[in-house]
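Homework-ish question, so no full write-ups if that breaks the rules, but can someone show me the predicted structure for this set?
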Amino acid sequence: MDIRYIAKDVDKNKGVKIKDIIIGNGDFTIIAGPCSVENSEMIISTAQHVKSMGAAMLRGGAFKPRTSPYSFQGLKEEGLDLLKSASEKANIPVVSEVMDPRDVERIYNYVDMFQIGSRNMQNFSLLKEVGRTDKPILLKRGMAATIEDFIMAAEYMAAEGNDKIILCERGIRTFENMTRNTLDLAAVPILKKLCKLPVIVDPSHGTGVRDLVLPMSLAALAVGADGIMVEVHPDPACALSDADQSLSFDDFEALIKRINQVKEHFLDIREGCL
Amino acid sequence: MDIRYIAKDVDKNKGVKIKDIIIGNGDFTIIAGPCSVENSEMIISTAQHVKSMGAAMLRGGAFKPRTSPYSFQGLKEEGLDLLKSASEKANIPVVSEVMDPRDVERIYNYVDMFQIGSRNMQNFSLLKEVGRTDKPILLKRGMAATIEDFIMAAEYMAAEGNDKIILCERGIRTFENMTRNTLDLAAVPILKKLCKLPVIVDPSHGTGVRDLVLPMSLAALAVGADGIMVEVHPDPACALSDADQSLSFDDFEALIKRINQVKEHFLDIREGCL
Amino acid sequence: MDIRYIAKDVDKNKGVKIKDIIIGNGDFTIIAGPCSVENSEMIISTAQHVKSMGAAMLRGGAFKPRTSPYSFQGLKEEGLDLLKSASEKANIPVVSEVMDPRDVERIYNYVDMFQIGSRNMQNFSLLKEVGRTDKPILLKRGMAATIEDFIMAAEYMAAEGNDKIILCERGIRTFENMTRNTLDLAAVPILKKLCKLPVIVDPSHGTGVRDLVLPMSLAALAVGADGIMVEVHPDPACALSDADQSLSFDDFEALIKRINQVKEHFLDIREGCL
Amino acid sequence: MDIRYIAKDVDKNKGVKIKDIIIGNGDFTIIAGPCSVENSEMIISTAQHVKSMGAAMLRGGAFKPRTSPYSFQGLKEEGLDLLKSASEKANIPVVSEVMDPRDVERIYNYVDMFQIGSRNMQNFSLLKEVGRTDKPILLKRGMAATIEDFIMAAEYMAAEGNDKIILCERGIRTFENMTRNTLDLAAVPILKKLCKLPVIVDPSHGTGVRDLVLPMSLAALAVGADGIMVEVHPDPACALSDADQSLSFDDFEALIKRINQVKEHFLDIREGCL
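A: Not a homework solution, just the prediction itself:
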C-alpha cells in the first residue's frame, strides 16, 4: 500500500483541531445530533442537550443521500442555516455532509468539519475538492470498502494538501440481517496502526438498532477509537430518517454517563497510538 | 419499492437508442474496448478491430477512478480527444465514464453514452446531473449495492427526465477471492422483470480473470442480458490498468465467433422481456 | 493448493458413472425431484414425470437438515423406502442426502449417489466415511466456502479412495436479499480448470426463486456445467419445504424443452473440459 | 423465531457450571490454550501458565478440522490423553472439539466441555448427539451463519435435553481480507437479549492477527460478553496451526493484566443480562 501523507510515521500529528476541540489527542470525543436537520426547534434543542451532556460536536444532515429519490432529501441550504444558528446558540462546532464538489465552497462557511458519506467514499472528485480546502474532514468507510480502499480514499485528500482527516468506521455490508451493517471494530486498531489519523466509530449506522448503540459505543472506546458519532433526536419515533437507530435525549444521557464512568481506564490505549 | 419512471409497465420502450444502434431491442449488443485510453495508436487499432468483429460500441476510459491516487488516472481531456478521433475513424459510437458533475457538460460532446462507474452508483449529484441531459447513460452496479439500491439509483436519473438508461451488472463484493468480484447473473432477469431498462453484463470486471470472460459472456447471453461490455487491449500484458482481465484481439475474435454461433437461439429470451 | 487426487491432470476420467448413466462425459445431465419425499404418491408421480421428460436422476430428501429443529425433518427411513420404490417403478437412479457418518452404511443400499449438503461440506468425518465407499458422491458447496475450501473438501473424500465425486455450485451467502443465495457461476469454469471432476449447478437453492430457475439453468449450460439439479414438486404451493423455489410439472417440462432446444450448441464446451 | 428451550425468559439460569467454575454468572471468564495439543511439554506448560494468570479453562485441539486433508489433523486420542494429564497437573478444566457423533461417548471422559466448531455448527447429527449428554457445550458460530441460524443450532441441542450451552462469536466471512474473519461484536448483545445462554468471544479466530487479540478482547468485555477464548502457545512462531494469531505467554500475561485493570467497571453489564 502506497501511503505517502497519512502513514503512521509521516509527520505524526496530535489529532485534528476543529475550532477549540481536538479529536485524536488521547481523549474520547462525542459527536452527536440528528440524522437530518428537520426544523429550528429540534436542532437547537438537540444542540443544547448534547452540548450540556459533554458532546464536543454537533452532527446534522442538510444534504441527505437517500436510496430513493422520493425519500426526504434534507432541508439543504435551509438546513445549513438552521444548523449554523443552532451551532452558535449552543456554542458547539458542527459537522455536516457534503455530497457534491460544487457545494464545497458554499458549505465551507456553514460547517466546522466536512463529512464525506459512505456512498461517496470513492467519489474521487469530491475527495479532491475537499482535499483542497483547509477544513477538517470526516471520512466514512464505504459499505464495500476494504481497509485498504478506505486508507487510499483518505490519501486522495491528503495528496491534495489536506491531512486534517478523521476516519469513521460505520459498518460494512454482510449477509447478517439483524443489524443494518456489520460494525468492523477490528478496523479501528488496524487503521490506527497504519495511519496517523484519528479514528472514530458510528454505532448508529453501524448497527441500525437503538439498543446496540450503548454496548457498541463502549466497545469502540475499549478497542481504541478516538470517539464516536451517534444519532440523537428529541423524538426518535417521529424522526424523518433513521428513526430506528436514533437515541432519545434520555438514552443519550445514559450513554454519556456510562462512557464517563469507564473512560479514564482506556485513555492510555488512545495515547499509545499518538 | 417506489419505482415511478422505470418500472416494467411504465411507458414500455423498445430499448435505448444510441446514434444508429439500439440496445435492448432484442439483440445481444457487444461493447468493447480498453480499460483506459492510453495513446492514439492503441485506441484506433482497438476501435477498428472491435468494429470489424461486430461490436456496436467502443468503450474507453479517459477519467479513471482508481483506488490509489498514485495509480494511472487516465489521460483525461487528451483521452477524450483520442477516443473521439478513434470513434470517427472507425465509425463506432463510444461510451466513457464521467466522474464529476462539473464534467458532464464538457464530456457530453465527446461521448455517445455516459458511463457511471460502480464507485459512483450512489453519487446522487452526478446521477441527477446526467439525468438532466438527453444522452444515454450506462449505470454500473455498485460493489455493495442491492438490486433495490441499483434500481433506485436509475430512478434518480429518470426522475430528472432521462430514462435512456442501460443497467450493467458487474459483480458484487463477496468473500470469494479467486475472482475479483462475484458476478450476480440472477440480477439480470430480476432487473428485467422489475424495470423496462436494458441490462448488460460486464464479465471483465465481474470476474477479473481473462479466461472467464468467454464462459461468463455466454452465460450472460443465456440468462437474458441485452449485451455485454468487455475489455479488449492490443497488448493485454502491457495494459496500464486491468491487465489480468483484458482480452487480446484474438481472444476477442474467438469470443465474438462463439457468441455468433449460439446467439440466435437465445434472442427470444430478450424479446420476451420487451 | 495441494490437490493430489482430483487435480485436472491426475487420472483424467470421463465423468462419473452412476448405474447406466454418466455425468461429466460431455452431456448436460438433469437431476430433478422434490426437496423432500413426502409420501408415496408424490414421489412416484414426480419420478415418472421427470423421467419421461429426460431427467437422468431423481433427487429426494429423506433426511433433511433444517435450520430449526421444529421444521419438518424428512421422513427418514420411511422416505428412503418410498424413494427406492419410486426409483424402481420409474426406472431412474436416485440421489439423497446423508447427514451422519453412522447412516452411510444404511443409506448405501437405498441410493445410487450420496449427497453431501452445504451445511456439511466441511463435516470431515462424514466426508471421510463416504470417501471409504465405492458409491458416487454429490458434494454441494458450503454457503461460506471459497472455491479452495470446496476443492479441498472433495480432496478429503478422494484421499480416502473415492474420487467418483460431482461438485455442485449452489450459491453463496451475500448481502443481496432478493435471492436466497448468490449463484457463483464463475466457479464452474474455475472448478473445471482445476479439477477433473464434473460440476453441476443447483439453480433452485442457488436463487430460491421459481422464475429464476429457467434462466439460471440456461446460464449453467452456457458456462460449461455438466448438468443441473432442480427441485420439482407435483404441487409446489403445498410442498413441505422449499415451496417458493420448486417447479411444477409444467414448469419442468418447459425448462427441459428450452434446454433441449439449445443444448447441442454448448456441448463442445463440456467436451473441451474432458 | 421459534425458540422454546433457550429463550431469554425460559428457565432463566445463572450461567453454565463446569466443574467448579461458572460461565455467565456475571464474571468475565478466560479460556486459553493452544490451537492444537502438540506434545506433553507444551500443553502442560501452557496449562500451568494460563492457570497461573487466572484462566478458568484450558482449550486444546486433539481432533482438528482443517481445510486440507494434508494439514496436521491433531494428535487425536493421544492429544486427549495429553490434554487430560495437563488438566490434572494444572488443576484446570478443559474444553476440546468433537467433530464426529461417534466420538462423543469416548471424548466425554476426557473433557469438561465439548466444543462444536464453526464448520460443524449445522452438523445436526452432532448437535443432537452432544445434546443427549449432560456435559456443557461450547457452540461456535458458523462462518456464514446468521444470528438466527446460530440460535436455532443451539436450540437443536437444547431440544435434546442439554441446555448447558455457551455461544461463541468467532467472526463471519466478509470481503475484508486484512483479518481472517470479521468479528461481529453486535451479535453479543443481540444473543444475550434473545437467549438465556452465556456468550463468549474468540478474538483469535475472529481476527487471525495476534496484535488484534488484546483490543478485541477489551471490546468483547465492553460489549457485554461473558468471557473470551484465546489461543496461547509457548512458541507461537513454531505452532503447528494458527501461528499468526497465537499469543505468547508474555502476550497473554499482558492481556490478562489489562483485562483485570478494567474488568470491574463492566461486570454490571453482564449482571444486567442474567
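Now go work out the reasoning yourself. Hint: Chain A has one domain: 16-271.
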